[in-house]
Amino acid sequence: MAYVAITDTPIDVTELYHKLVDPKFGGIVTFVGIVREWTDAIQTKSITYTAYQEMAVKQMAQMAAKVEATGSRVVMVHRIGHLELTEAAVFIGVAAPHRKAAFQQCEALIDELKQTVPIWKEEFDADKTRWGGLEDAAN
């Protein structure tokens, strides 16, 4: 069964990875998105994430259910609150019988999450504060 959450505490990547381990799965793919310092010429100092939590969890669960209907397992966690550089903002893991499906499903989940789930970021950059979220899905 999928594990999805929005959390205001640091993401424990090892703990979440272990939720994916099962003898029936031959491939586990994980994605961990961290707060990066540079986006082209923009220098980020920190980010605050906010979310419409009830809706975000509901949408994440629906996304995970579609993937799990194929026989895979999903773990998806997004952090909210103030994050410093290199802190994990999102963890997505997919365990599947074979690696190809695990890679494809993990990539599809992070892409869909960034495009549709109501999570926003306030970026504190070297020159000003910027808002992002659903509309900046390409980053």
**Percent range of helical residues:** 25-40%
Q: For the record, what is the CATH homologous superfamily label? A: Molybdopterin biosynthesis MoaE subunit
- Run of helices and strands: EHEEEHEEEHEE
Structural class: alpha+beta
By DSSP, the count of extended strands is 9
Question: Oligomeric form of this entry?
Answer: single chain
**CATH second-level architecture:** Alpha-Beta Complex
- Mean pLDDT across the residues is 95
Note the overall shape. elongated
Beta-strand portion reads: 35-45%
Largest sheet: 5 strands, antiparallel
In the CATH hierarchy, the third-tier topology is known as Aldehyde Oxidoreductase, domain 3
Radius of gyration: 15 Å
Runs in which pLDDT lies below 50 for 5 or more consecutive residues are none
**What is the highest CATH level, the class?**
Alpha Beta
Give the tally of structural domains.
1
Alpha plus pi helix count: 3
Distance between the termini: 30 Å
